[in-house]
């Protein structure tokens, strides 16, 4: 399933002092108290908590609501948190009452978090949050309320979030909440000039780290934003912030400025920042308009000590290089050792082509024949998608019988990418339609799903070539739910498209088909460690059984069965995630059951471990680890573990690297 990625800069003493004062934590840890000897391993020894978690898993609002009124504050809190996963707006009035009236701050925080997760934009919710902001005596509750206001904001209510009440203007906790609230609103496309101006004010020290991270992340992610007026503030943050994550996000935001100083700044950051994630962000921020002044820095980055930086540089050339010789890129690619960087640069060579295009295409095909790794072969197929003359060869490679499924997956993606090229010949359009029909009938999940998606792509305008959806119906009926959900859904959406019907809602397996295995949960102690043994070294995880019992139980069962042995990391996105656990090795594989999403009050910090999904409540066996904070995933993907050791190993992982085995350590003493 598709989701959907340490070194620190040497700081002068004054900056280090500011860092300590700001309370900066590069990788916040989940607070977990280990069980005392002889005590239950985790909180789910309590039968009432198991009942609550089961009701959450079943999405049973009626069963959960009475717990919001229980005398025991723990049960009220857990019930409120359950609604963060259930996300039923029918619970909003009860949650609003809990937020307004509960005597326990922990319970009110949980209610605010759950209200934010429902993303209810009605005036009732807006007023409940605004009232609590001005009346609640607890700083942490107010911080949660501000973030929830962002998740529930409308364009009309955004002003309430931009202007803090005067009494909170100097409250650092309120600054953090406001910054995250503005970030959550921006993710939903709700922002304003005043909001951007306030975000920029929250960017420099001595604003707390969490607020600076939110501010920088907001500026990096808002689309179609001209940040030229704020260039000095962005440069200062990119060059001097003590935390790599803030520097990286501010650096990325510099790509939205047209100021003449930006290209040189990005080139310098790409060469000199001590953290690979900042160097990577500098290259990612470079655009076509900057090509001449940043080109040399990008050339140097192709041999960066960190492979993720080198790959990002190759991707920059593939996307933005112009007026260059394809032969030049072919020669440079031949000197590179990292296969993914080399294949990407070969794609750039073929795209630029010129008189050497035939020579470059043949060179890529020769490398394909010699490559041992199916993943390298896949990337070479991606490179060939830059040349329409490679169409027939690509098709044959895609459908070669008996080859690893990974190759067919990359091949079909390459064929679709090729069809999108402006110079794809009209004389080949009919042949491409036949290729898609062949793909739908192939029986391979990835080829079927990708081909079906292309048929309904409005840019390709293929509907007239498929007067009947019978071949899609036949293919869909051969699939098994929930195991083949992603391919099933792609086929069904294309059937709806060809038949002129509204899109069929995604089917979600009921909790009864795979309930939480409480017997397994009660064998997993708080603080349970799991070591992922890879060819690059070990990565140690702490499982979060109290926050995600169903997900942890599933993971533990699969580990005990040896399910993950000799699986691959099939997806590595620089400065985002490394993802593995797919039984096919290409991201289209699954177990024969689905899990329900468990959205605890956790954040995707560096080293967070989440479950991949094809949508809410469709999690299975695939998981990913984040290279850096990725707050846009918060509350959307289950977090079930946290890396404790091995971030240096994670930064080296490459597509195709093996998971040799996963070891569950003995219970903590």
UniProtKB/TrEMBL annotation:
Presence of the UniProt keyword Plastid in the record: no
Secretion signal, residue range per the UniProt entry: 1-22
The keyword Isomerase is annotated on this UniProt entry: yes
Recorded superkingdom: Bacteria
A Pfam family this chain is assigned to: HEAT_2
EC number: 5.2.1.8
Catalytic class of the enzyme: isomerase
Keywords of the record: Isomerase, Rotamase, Signal
Domain PPIase cyclophilin-type: 537-669
CDD domains reported for this sequence: cyclophilin
A GO molecular function held by the record: peptidyl-prolyl cis-trans isomerase activity
Name assigned to this protein: peptidylprolyl isomerase
Species, as recorded: Hymenobacter lutimineralis
Lineage: Bacteria, Pseudomonadati, Bacteroidota, Cytophagia, Cytophagales
């Amino acid at each position: 399933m598709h989701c959907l990625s340490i070194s620190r800069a040497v700081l002068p003493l004054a900056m280090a002092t500011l860092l300590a004062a700001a309370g900066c934590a590069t990788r916040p840890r989940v607070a977990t108290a280990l069980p005392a000897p002889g005590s239950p391993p985790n909180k789910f020894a309590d039968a009432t908590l198991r009942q609550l978690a089961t009701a959450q898993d079943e999405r049973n609002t009626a069963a959960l609501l009475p717990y919001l009124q229980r005398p025991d504050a723990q049960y009220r809190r857990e019930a409120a948190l359950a609604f963060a996963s259930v996300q039923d707006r029918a619970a909003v009035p009860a949650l609003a009452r809990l937020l307004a009236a509960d005597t326990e701050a922990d319970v009110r925080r949980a209610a605010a978090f759950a209200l934010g997760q429902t993303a209810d934009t009605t005036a009732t919710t807006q007023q409940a949050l605004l009232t609590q902001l001005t009346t609640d005596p607890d700083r942490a509750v107010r911080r949660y309320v501000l973030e929830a206001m962002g998740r529930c904001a409308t364009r009309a209510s955004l002003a309430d979030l931009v202007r803090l009440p005067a009494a909170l203007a100097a409250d650092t906790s309120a600054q953090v909440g406001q910054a995250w609230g503005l970030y959550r609103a921006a993710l939903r496309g709700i922002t304003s000039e005043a909001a951007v101006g306030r975000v920029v004010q929250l960017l420099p020290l001595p604003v707390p780290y969490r607020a600076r991270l939110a501010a920088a992340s907001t500026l990096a992610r808002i689309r179609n934003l001209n940040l030229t007026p704020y260039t000095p503030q962005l440069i200062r943050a990119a060059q001097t912030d003590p935390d790599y994550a803030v520097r990286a996000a501010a650096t990325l935001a510099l790509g939205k400025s047209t100021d003449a100083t930006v290209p040189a700044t990005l080139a310098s950051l790409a060469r000199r920042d001590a953290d690979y994630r900042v160097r990577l962000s500098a290259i990612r921020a470079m655009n076509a308009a900057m090509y001449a002044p940043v080109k040399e820095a990008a050339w140097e980055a192709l041999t960066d000590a960190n492979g993720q930086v080198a790959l990002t540089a190759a991707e920059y050339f593939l996307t933005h290089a112009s007026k260059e010789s394809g032969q030049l890129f072919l020669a440079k690619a031949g000197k590179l050792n990292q296969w993914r960087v080399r294949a990407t640069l070969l794609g750039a060579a073929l795209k630029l082509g010129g008189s050497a295009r035939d020579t470059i295409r043949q060179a890529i095909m020769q490398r394909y024949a010699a490559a041992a790794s199916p993943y390298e072969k896949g990337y070479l197929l991606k490179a060939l998608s830059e040349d329409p003359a490679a169409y027939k060869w690509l098709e044959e490679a895609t459908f070669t019988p008996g080859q690893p499924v990974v190759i067919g997956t990359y091949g079909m993606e390459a064929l679709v990418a090729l069809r999108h090229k402006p110079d794809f010949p009209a004389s080949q359009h009919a042949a491409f339609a036949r290729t898609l029909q062949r793909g739908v009938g192939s029986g391979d999940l990835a080829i079927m799903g990708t081909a079906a998606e292309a048929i309904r792509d409005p840019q390709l305008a293929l509907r007239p070539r498929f007067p009947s959806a019978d071949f899609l119906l036949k293919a869909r009926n051969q699939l098994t739910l929930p195991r083949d959900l992603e391919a099933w859904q792609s086929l069904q959406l294309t059937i709806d498209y060809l038949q002129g019907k509204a899109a069929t809602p995604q089917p979600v397996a009921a909790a009864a088909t795979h309930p939480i295995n409480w017997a397994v949960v009660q064998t997993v102690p708080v603080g349970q460690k799991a070591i992922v043994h890879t060819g690059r070294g070990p990565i140690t995880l702490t499982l979060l059984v109290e926050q995600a019992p169903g997900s942890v139980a599933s993971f533990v069962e699969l580990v005990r069965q040896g399910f993950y042995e000799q699986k691959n990391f099939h997806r590595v996105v620089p400065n985002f995630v490394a993802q593995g656990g797919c039984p096919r090795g290409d991201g289209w594989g699954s177990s024969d059951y689905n899990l329900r999403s468990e959205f605890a009050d956790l954040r995707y910090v560096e080293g967070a471990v989440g479950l991949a999904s094809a949508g809410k409540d469709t999690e299975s066996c695939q998981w990913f680890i984040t290279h850096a904070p990725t707050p846009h995933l918060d509350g959307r993907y289950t977090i079930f573990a946290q890396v404790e050791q091995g971030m240096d190993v994670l930064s080296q992982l490459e597509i195709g690297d093996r998971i040799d085995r996963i070891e569950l350590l003995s219970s903590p003493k």
